Description:
The protein has helices at residues 15-25, 44-49, 116-138, 171-182, 188-192, 208-211, 224-227; strands spanning 2-7, 29-33, 52-57, 65-70, 75-79, 92-97, 100-106, 142-147, 186-187, 201-202, 214-215, 218-222, 230-235, 251-255. By secondary structure, the protein is of the alpha+beta class. Helix 3 (116-138) links the parallel strand 7 (100-106) and strand 8.
Amino acid sequence: MRIATYNINGIKARLPRLIEWLSETQPDVACLQEIKTSDETFPVKDIEDAGYGVIWHGQKGFNGVAILARGETPVEVRRGLDGEPEDEHSRYIEADVKGVRVASIYLPNGNPQPGPKFDYKLRWMKRLRDRAQQIWAEEVPAILAGDYNVIPRDKDVYSVKAMADDALMQPESRAAYRRILGDGWTDAILSKHPAGGVWTFWDYQMNAWPRDAGFRIDHLLLSPAAADRLIDAQVDKDFRGREKASDHAPTWVELAG
DNA sequence: ATGCCATATCACATATGA
C-alpha cells in the first residue's frame, strides 16, 4: 500500500498534473496541501472521476488540505488542531482510511523570522505534537504526512549558507520537529535515506530546479505499527520537472499489506 | 533590503509563499 503527500500549490492550477499523477502512479492514499481553494469550489468531481474518494478542508486563496483514497472515501476523524480557537487557517485534516490513521499537514512556513509568523509556526508545532501524542495513545497504525516546512538536518538542504536565516532551518524549528521524532515517530525518508541529499522542494526562482538546488521539507512520520510495515520511501522527482509543475514533488511510503 | 517565480484574489496591485 502506497501513501503519498503532495503540496500541489493550487489545486485549480494543478488539476491536470494532479490527475496525471494519480493515473500514472496510483497511490492508495494521497495527502494534499496548499489546495488554495474554498470548500465550495473544491473540484470534487474531477477527483472522483479519477477513481478517488476525497475529504478536504479548504480556505479561500491560500492553505487548505485534503485526503484522497483510491476506490473509497476516507472517514474523517477531525479537522484543525486544538489549543488556539482563533486560528482559522486550514492546515490539518485527519481520517481513517484503509486501516491506517492518516493526517494531512500543512505546517506554517514561519518567515520572516523572528516575528509573529515564526511564533505562530512554533505554537502550531506544539499543538501538532499534542495531537500526535493523542494518536500515539490510540496505538493505531498512523502516518502524519505533509509539508512540515522544516529542514531537519544540514544534509537535507542544498546550501546551509543560503538558507541559514530561513525559518525552515532555525534551531527552534528543528528542535520542535525533533521533539516529535523523540516521542517515537519514524521519519520514513530519513530512515531509508540516512545519508541525505534527498529533496522534495525546489524553488521556482533562481534556477533552482535545473541546478538541483532543493531541500527536504515534506515528511511522512510513522507510528510503530506503520513503521514495522515500511518497505520503501521515495520522491516522485520526475513530476517536479514537468510542465506547470508544483514547486514540491510527491513524496511517499510503501507499506506491507 | 529587494527581486527573482508562481498562485491566488473584491485582478492590471497586493498577499503569501519558502
